[in-house]
Design brief:
Length: 405
Amino acid sequence: MAANSNKKLKEEKSETVFKELEKRTKELVESRKALMNILEDVEAARAEAEEERDKTLAIFENFPEGLLFFDRENRVSSINPRFSDLFDVDPKELIGKERKDLSSIPSLTPLIETLGEEIKGIHRKELKLREDLVLEVSTVTVMREEEKIGTLVILRDVTREKIVERLKTEFVSIAAHQLRTPLSAIKWTLRMILDGDLGEVPKEQREFLEKTYQSNERMIRLINDLLNVTRIEEGRFLYNIKRQDIIKIAEKVINPLKEIAKRKGLKFEFRKPKEKLPEVEVDSEKLSLCFQNLVENAIHYTPPGGRVKISIKYLKDKKEILVSVQDTGIGIPKDQQKRVFTRFFRGANAIRTETEGTGLGLFIAKNIVEAHGGKIWFESEENKGTTFYFSLPIKGRFKEFIKAF
């Protein structure tokens, strides 16, 4: 009886061990399957990552612009063939070098000086390496999950564009100069006839001659604007910089325009500061042109009964003069405001209101202000009015700007 009992216990124990073993074996098989699935997923992910890496590398290698990549320690990490061709350098000699070490390579010196010590942010800055090679330099900070991993330098060859631009500028300059002489002769001939120097002019003929004279005047203004644009593009716009009182410059321009505004039925106000302003170093002729363009626009595009207000003040904390020209005119459509300072731009509503105009006035004004080291901007709402602002640094800051320029 006892023997049967022991045998039964052994059988039950063996069965339990077998079941446990079977369970463990099953778990191991399932674990192996899971591990194999994980390994397969890892392998697939690795293959996908390698494919993406190869694609990125292929794009980098075949990119039409020159590319130079600095890692987070400002060491050269990658260079594409186009960069090597532009600067005639061997990539193997540059990989791993710090930015400062590249200055010793003559062909790279102009680029390294442009990038600066800490590789500053640059957007489309021109770099002339030689007469037949002009590059446009831009830098892009490369981020990964909000962490900077490096800086990409992009170099675009704009030599052909610059040649075409120069030829176009030269053509406009020559054409404008050739046109100005006969237009001036026509102007003075018409003036002599209208003033009666060649005899009395009948009323009917005078009306036609007056219209002809005004049309000729518009042509002369267009030619002068085109010549100013060519001077801006050739970098020879400012030539007579002196310490001057900006209020006196403004008054010479504004006083004659005040009469035009009153005849149109506008409320016109020139708000001058009570205290004497510090003098600024400016080219008075060019700054007068800036005032004229802004104030004339305000008058032309403000309907009768509206208001034009000019104010000048000194911002002591910024050490600069701030000028504002405010009107209650037609305003600038919001979808066109980005183009305001570009050449030949005129708002759709401005063309409907005032058919005359070259679209060069604000482009010229912007370049005049920026050539003096200042800034120009505006606020506008269609059918409610526009305010143009520009600031000019006082003499110390302007000298620093000119030196850097």
